[in-house]
Write a structure and sequence with these properties.
This protein is α/β, with parallel strands linked by helices. The chain has 2 domains: about 5-45, no CATH class; about 65-245, Rossmann fold, CATH 3.40.50. It has helices spanning about 15-25, 65-70, 75-80, 100-110, 120-135, 140-145, 155-160, 185-195, 200-210, and strands at about 5, 25-30, 35-40, 45-50, 90-95, 110-115, 145-150, 170, 215-220, 230-235, 240-245. The strands form 2 sheets. It has a 7-stranded mixed beta sheet with strand order 7-6-5-8-9-11-10, with helices on both faces. Helix 7 (about 155-160) packs parallel to helix 9 (about 200-210). It is globular. The chain binds S-adenosylmethionine (SAM). S-adenosylmethionine binds near residues 98, 119, 154, 190 and 202.
Length: about 240
Amino acid sequence: MAWAIISDTPACMQRATLLSKQLNLPVLSASDKYPDYILAVMNDHLEVQLKNTKPIYVDFLDPQFLRRLHSVTVREPLLRAVGFKRNIPLHILDVTAGFGIDACIMAYAGAHIILLEREPIMGVLLQDGLARAQTQGELMSVAARMHCEVVDAKDYLTALLPEHYPDVIYLDPMFVHTKSALPNKQMQFLQNLSNDSDADQLLNLALERASKRVVIKRSINAPHLGGIKPDMCIKSKLLRFDVFL
Ligand SMILES: C[S@@+](CC[C@H](N)C(=O)[O-])C[C@H]1O[C@@H](n2cnc3c(N)ncnc32)[C@H](O)[C@@H]1O
């Protein structure tokens, strides 16, 4: 996959140059031939531009996503799976952060979340969306409970000291979900970007390091990750959360 960075206006050039160093990608000028995969530095956000599709970026303040958040109740399968209880804040490590949608739902309910994402492009999109939510709009206090690192979760977990073990480790490895919380174009983008074939290894590390439970999001009929049977399953129409206590 050939990627390059473009700067939408001259004012964005400084950020484009910094990202170019961080991601080791060239910054193109308007006269260059563009590759298929572009990370565009816009005035107020970062976005991925692909041929024949709308720009992809992380926007926790998107009205449709806010409506989804406003409909969240304690009966939400995700919250039941992580063991959410009112007034007892959970510390959750989301080791497959992606677009941060599940993490934001958990943070909205009151949890403190560390989000880990290993794909550098996805990681900078997520950090960008999070930074905006932390400084503007109605989710500032929610986003303040979310912190994102661009790292392979296997390395992060291997180096984690016991005093920092989280209550819950949450995994949502890429899988062909029959229907996903992510809109299709976002899911397809992630599927192209990321290969989660090492999810079994991630599960083994997670089982050793979660103080209370490990939760895995699966499609309803998917086999158990790594063939390991969970202690319980919380099901919705199309999804299943496998819970290890
Ligand atoms: C299905 S997506 C997660 C979607 C996410 N739950 C959401 O709500 O947006 C899986 C993501 O996990 C990331 N991932 C997979 N294995 C990882 C690892 N070992 N460390 C960090 N990120 C990982 C992938 O790059 C991908 O972005």
